[in-house]
Amino acid sequence: MTRKERLTAFMHTPDYKPLKFDELAIVLDVPKNELHLLAQLLDELVCAGEIAKNKKGRYGISTSAGLISGRFAAGRRGGGFVVPDDGSEDIFVGGGECMSAMNGDTVMVHVSKKAGAGKKREGEIQRIVKRAHQNVVGAFHAGKDGHFMLIADDPKLSESILLYKEGCAVLSEGDKILAKIVHYPKADAPAKAQFTEFLGPAGHAATDTTCIIRQFGIPEEFSAAAILQAEALDAEVLPNEIKGRRDFRGDNVITIDGEDAKDLDDAVFARRNPGGGYRLFVHIADVTHYVAENTAIDMEALERATSVYFPDRVVPMLPRQLSNGICSLNPHVDRLTLSVIMDIDTDGNVIDHEICEGVIRSAQRMTYTDVTALIERSDPQLAARYASILDDIVLMNELAALLRRRRTARGSIDFDFPEPKIILGEDGRVRDVMPYPIGVSNHMIEEFMLICNEVVAKHASEAALPFVYRVHEAPTGDKMSDLEKFLHNLDIPFPTAQGVTPMQMQNTLSKVKGTPIERVAGIVMLRAMMKAHYSPGNLGHFGLAADYYCHFTSPIRRYPDLAIHRVLKESLKKGFGTKRLAYLNAFVQTAAKHSSDMEIRATEAEREADKLKICEYMQQFTDHEFDAVIASVTEFGMFVGLPNTAEGLIALRHLDDDFYVYNKDSYTLTGERTKKRYALGDPIRVRLVRSDPALRQIDFVPADSQMDAAEFARVSSSVKLFDASEGFSAGRQDKRKKAGKKSAEKSDRQFYKPVRKNGGKKKKK
Description:
The chain is α+β, with helices and mostly antiparallel strands.
């Protein structure tokens, strides 16, 4: 047992009470010449958050010292919340109790006031365990006093950062830069940073995305070693690489992707079985043939864990020589695959399957647009162009419809929420924003990928392979109680006492389908559910009502897929020795956790870019009116959505015709005097008064309000605003209260908001 283990074991004993340094030295009988080692060890454990040191200098296990570890989520105007690592309720931290913590920092917090009367727990940050930001992105500002400052792009890093002058002479006011933090903020001193990289002039379209990439710490460039390795690969499949593989080059294999997609990782083909039923072939790029374990490319792919898709570019997981080249299943050339062959009966059940290494030659590179036109509109020109594969497409659509019916029958939940499609002009500026079109071809590929992922996950589970599963636990707790109350207010029975099933949720959605509250009910149900993530253990997938599920079908853009390809191929060829099995069991745990974290990072970065571009686009419509739908109602206002997917806030203080009371059970705002009621799903006519790309925020007012953009700007500058995320209402509503008024991927994608791929390609994988 190491010294660290002995020390923490001692502190974990039931009789241990926090001791000072000198007391610990005596109790542990530490020689004088080793006191410095004890001090060093204690500092390391405190920094790691494993133990805590209180104000009296006593050391103890963090939990026994009354401290909770978590991530600090800063508000835009001071204070914030600590999100505990143990999943318990958030802890509010006031502006004077933050101990100079920055947004995202890992901290130890002491709870000073317990939750009650509808209020959250309150606490004080006692220690900053780990800083979230080593680098900060922002705008350069030269102060009149000769100091240089960085104004962070992240509005939650509200404090200006002092810049050392070195290298800043070449910068102009407003330039976007990257700076490395040298000294973190203290109570009496701001953070200090060193300018490291010029990202571009302010307002340039490409600069926006570059800033977001740097802000989230997404590695854009590959190492020299990885590039050299990629460039050394052959651009074509060699004859000796095909030996021992199943040859599928005689089949009418096709790919179906978005128009702009370049990383084509899946191809499909189907035929009828002579005895009835179907045989489905799903061919996935054999990336592991080119990416050997622990090589430079493999290590970088693991670190990135996913490709990240922005409106104007893709940051790939693999070098483009692989992602767009030898691994991509381009048409009319040989490509290596890991293929899953499934026999499916007339009820949609997979009755047999085979996983094998293969080689294909895609007959056509199809797009969703063309395949949908062939199926839905029987376009004669397209039918003539694709006559050689038309019958195959019709058959695959028939099979996909069967699989969808089977999935629906078992309770799989489908939420129909539009995602934005952002169209850029040649200058990089947003030309249009619209809902991403989903057609029958999207559903076809979705069903084939879903069934393939299920079959592979079941195969791995039954073979007890070290594996990375895609899991989605059943929803529990307060969120389900809130959902039950919400549906009860709509006269929809939804008992949760005995637990909730996917079929129950699906049936509830079917009851409101086609009604004004369909979208609202779907939003509330989705919010009540857990998030999907990666796990080394099979926990099933609640949203898909699947006992087994994984991500197998996108190894070009997701590391979990690549990792399980490697495991599957190894199990097919030679199996595992004892040491190898132990190594892989440890590896899949690490890969699952890291991939989940990187998925969150990628999703947040993609959303940030989408919000920025949508805000830029909407600026031209200031003072214009729109038809909207109330998408969310909160204690500080309501969010409304436009048909083009843009969303914005109507702040409570801008509802100036009455004092409105928020009902959290029914998600409504009701005027005390007029009894006017705003509810989830209600249509509403709104006026755009501000669209701010810097804040990623769009503001509306009701169209019948007298406020325009100029008045909004005046009011906003004269009244202290509180960030919506902080959960406070402000301004006119509060003044009236003081005056005596009464207070008051579709798919797995939908269970974790989408990581966009292939230029906007939408697949459930």
